[in-house]
Design brief:
The protein is of the alpha/beta class. The chain folds into 2 domains: 158 residues, Rossmann fold; 37 residues, no CATH class. It is built from 7 helices and 6 strands. A 4-stranded parallel beta sheet has the order 4-1-5-6, sandwiched between helices. The chain has a two-stranded antiparallel sheet with strand order 2-3. The protein is elongated, with a radius of gyration of 20 Å. The termini are far apart.
């Protein structure tokens, strides 16, 4: 206690207050950062929706990573900064926030990491074309720490229908009489065939996962 910053000591008080075993508080600290969004019940049903499937099940991956870190003898911490979906904001002023978000979130992730001064390493879980580049920029800017990215993968495509790229045009096609309302409804409700993962087409989200793996920031074969 004589040689540690006062924040380290108060941090142990906070950790004990959250219910962690006091005997384990001296373990090495590891931070799990993620872009999780929405509130998901244990049975998978939505309590509150996220903005997109890409961050809907991220919390499950972060939880699995934290459990593994604990099993290996570490003390896991977790924090997150959620991310938007430019598909949801198309045709609105929300599009103006899409690209700047990456830089904003990268700063938030770095501030969160610095806010755990005792961290020994960082694991980042992210999926889509805003959150994943933000996570990559944040971890690349903390080269003094060991870090790894876990991509969130992609949602399953429908057995029949259109992927999440093609389906974004159903509004225009309906307006031009190319689709009926029933056809547009059916296509729209089928495009994301699993509740988690990013868009299936090789857009910025999937490309970012591939780039993270190619740069050595994610383990081999973890993209998509």
């Amino acid at each position: 206690m004589r040689s540690k910053p006062s924040g380290d000591i108060f941090g142990m008080t906070q950790s004990a207050g959250m219910g962690w075993k006091a005997s384990e508080l001296g373990r090495d600290h590891y931070l799990v950062l993620s872009t999780q969004g929405g509130l998901r019940a244990p049975d998978g049903q939505p309590v509150a929706l996220g903005f997109h499937t890409g961050h809907w099940e991220i919390a499950l991956q972060a939880e699995a990573a934290a459990e593994r870190l604990h099993k290996l003898g570490g003390l896991p911490f977790a924090a997150f900064c959620s991310d938007p979906c430019d598909g949801r904001t198309q045709g609105t002023v929300g599009m103006f926030d899409s690209l700047p978000y990456r830089n904003d979130a990268a700063q938030v992730f770095r501030r969160l990491a610095r806010s755990l001064p005792t961290r020994k390493g960082i694991l980042g879980v992210a999926t889509c074309d805003k959150g994943l580049p933000a996570m990559m920029m944040a971890l690349a800017g903390m080269g003094d720490l060991p870090s790894v990215i876990v991509p969130g993968g992609v949602s399953l495509p429908p057995e029949q229908g259109e992927d999440a790229g093609a389906v974004q045009t159903i509004g225009a096609r309906f307006s031009h009489g190319m689709l009926s309302l029933d056809e547009a409804t059916e296509l729209g409700c089928k495009a994301c065939a699993s509740p988690g993962g990013g868009c299936q087409f090789l857009g910025t989200a999937a490309t970012s996962q591939v780039v993270a793996e190619a740069m050595g920031m994610a383990v081999p074969h973890s993209a998509l």
